């Protein structure tokens, strides 16, 4: 089951949109992971469906630049002010 997460920075007040995270409940084929585009300074959901995380390159849907994944274990860095102070709020499932 995938979830929607909203990331909020405790330092500068940046707030992401609803970011898809995980695997589709009905179609386990569909996978998304959160990541950041440093060019757009936005947190985005990266579509991993039919992709190999280790082999494929992923780019921002808006600007086409490479994007960077978040890992669950890291502290999350704000794409705007770089403070590792992002709070995650769950906002439903998909
Ligand atoms: Zn921030
Ligand atoms: Zn971008």
Unreliable sequence segments: none
Q: Which cofactor or ligand species appear?
A: zinc ion
Oligomeric organization of the protein chains: single chain
The biggest sheet amounts to: 6 strands, antiparallel
The structural domain count equals 1
Q: How would you portray this structure in words?
A:
This protein has 94 residues and is mainly beta. It has one domain (3-93). 0% of the residues lie in helices and 37% in strands. The protein has no helices and six strands. It has strands spanning 3-9, 19-23, 31-37, 42-47, 68-69, 86-93. Strands 1, 2, 3, 4, 5 and 6 form a six-stranded antiparallel β-sheet that branches. 22% of the residues are buried. The model has no long low-confidence stretch (mean pLDDT 92). It binds zinc ion (2 copies). Residues 37, 39-40, 60, 62-63, 65 line the site of one zinc ion.
Helix-strand blueprint:
Blueprint lengths: L2 E7 L9 E5 L7 E7 L4 E6 L20 E2 L16 E8 L1
Antiparallel strand pairs: 1-2, 1-6, 2-3, 3-4, 3-5
The structure holds zinc ion (2 copies).
One zinc ion binds next to loops.
Concise synopsis of the structure shown:
This protein is mainly beta.
Keywords:
globular, mainly beta, 94 residues, binds zinc ion, 6-stranded antiparallel beta sheet, single chain, 37% strand, 6 strands
């Amino acid at each position: 089951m995938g979830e929607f997460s909203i990331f909020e920075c405790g330092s500068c007040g940046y707030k992401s949109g609803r970011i898809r995270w995980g695997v589709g409940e009905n179609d386990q084929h569909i996978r998304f992971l959160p990541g950041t585009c440093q060019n757009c300074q936005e947190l985005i959901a990266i579509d991993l469906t039919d992709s190999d995380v280790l082999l494929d390159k992923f780019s921002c849907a808006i600007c086409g630049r490479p994007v960077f994944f978040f890992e669950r274990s890291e502290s999350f860095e704000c794409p705007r002010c770089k403070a590792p102070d992002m709070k995650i709020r769950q906002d439903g499932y998909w």
